[in-house]
C-alpha cells in the first residue's frame, strides 16, 4: 500500500509540474499559469507566455481580448494576425516584488531566426552639445563673461569650463552629451581655436528592464537587438528581475504600458537615438523577411479587486485605502508620469 501511495504522489507531483494548477484567485486567461522554459511547443505557434512565480497570477493576452492567447499560428495568412500586440496584466506590487518572466516559443520550421528588441526609455535627456565655444580670460587666467559665448545647450562654469546641459556627471549622473565643437580661447596675448568633442554617449541615459537582456553598442552605448538562430525551434525565457528595493515608488523600470501619445522619454522623433516602448520579438526567415512579430506591453494594476475584473476593471484607480489612509496607487506608471507629474524625463532609476 505504501508503494502505491508513493507512486500516486509522484504522478500527481509530475502532473502539477507539467500542467500547472490554478487557484480560485487566478485569471481565466488561457495563457495564465507557469510554463517550462526551454521546452519547445511544436503546436503552439510563435507565442509569448508567462512563467509565473509561485503564488502570483499575472497573465498575458492579445490586445483587445482578455481571453486570446498571445500567439501567431504557424499557418497564419492574415497580416493583422501576424503582427500583434499583447498585454501582460500584473498587480503593481507583484510585478515589482516578484519580477516577470516571459517565455518566447517558435515551433520548428516557422522561424529561422528570432530577434529580441528591448523596452527602454531615457531616464534623463540626451543630445548634441554646443557647437561653438568662445572663452575669454584675463592676464591672470580669470574667466571673463564679456566676450565669451556658447552656441548650443550649455553654460560656463565659474572658471570658464564649458558644460553641456546633457552632462549630469557633476551630480553623480551619466554624461549623455555628444558631438563635436570648436573651442576658441582668448587671452590678452593669444587667440587660439581648436577642435574638440563632447565625451558622453546617448545610451548612457537609457533605462528600463530590457537593458538587462541586451548588449550595448560600443560607439553610443545604445542597446542592440539580440539575434537567436531557431532553425529547429526556439523556446527561451526572458526574465525581468524584481525591483522593489531600488525603484521606490516607480514601476517604469518594467511596466511599459501607456495609451495615447508616447511619453517624451522615448524620444521617438529622434532618428538616431530613440527609445523603444515595447518588448518586441520578431520571427524571420533565412532572407530576414518578416514572418511574424509580437510586441508586448506590461500594464500594472493598482488594486486586486479591479485586476480580478479583467476587461471590466480599471487599472488606474486612485485615492486612499479605507481605514489605512495609504495610497491605492503605490507605484507611478507612465500615466502618472505624463498626466499628474508632467515629467518629460522621469529620472534614472537606481541600478
What do these coordinates show?
This protein is mostly beta strands and 351 residues long. The protein is 12% helix and 30% strand. It is built from five helices and 20 strands. It has helices at residues 2-19, 92-98, 244-247, 304-308, 334-340; strands spanning 46-50, 59-62, 71-72, 83-91, 100-106, 113-117, 121-122, 127-128, 132-137, 143-151, 154-156, 162-164, 177-178, 180-187, 190-197, 206-207, 226-229, 234-240, 279-284, 290-301. Strand 14 and strand 15 form a beta hairpin. The radius of gyration is 26 Å and the shape is globular. The N and C termini lie far apart (55 Å).
Main sheet: strands, sense, barrel: 6 strands, mixed
Shape: globular
Order of helices and strands: HEEEEHEEEEEEEEEEEEEEHEEHH
Percentage of residues in DSSP E strands: 25-35%
Rg from alpha-carbon coordinates: 26 Å
The strand line-up of the biggest sheet is 2-4-20-19-6-17
Number of helices: 5
Brief synopsis:
The strands form six sheets. This protein has a six-stranded mixed sheet with strand order 2-4-20-19-6-17. Helix content is 12%, strand content 30%.
